[in-house]
Amino acid sequence: MIDSYGIDGARMEAEGMGYLAPIASNLEETGREENRRVEVIVLGE
């Protein structure tokens, strides 16, 4: 987002949350693949 859209890195923060909010079971590889994702929440301009 910094390189592609010119967004100032100081305006963003990242937190690893996948282990807290899985969308599929981690018991199988297909479920682990579904849990590898990126979610973006826009708070305002």
From TrEMBL:
Residue ranges of the TM segments: none
Gene3D superfamilies linked: OmpA-like domain (3.30.1330.60)
SUPFAM superfamilies xref list: OmpA-like
OmpA-like domain location: 1-45
InterPro entries: OmpA-like (IPR006665), OmpA-like_sf (IPR036737)
Superkingdom field: Bacteria
Keywords for the protein's UniProt record, in alphabetical order: Membrane
Name under which the protein is recorded: OmpA-like domain-containing protein
Protein's organism: Sulfitobacter porphyrae
Taxon lineage: Bacteria, Pseudomonadati, Pseudomonadota, Alphaproteobacteria, Rhodobacterales
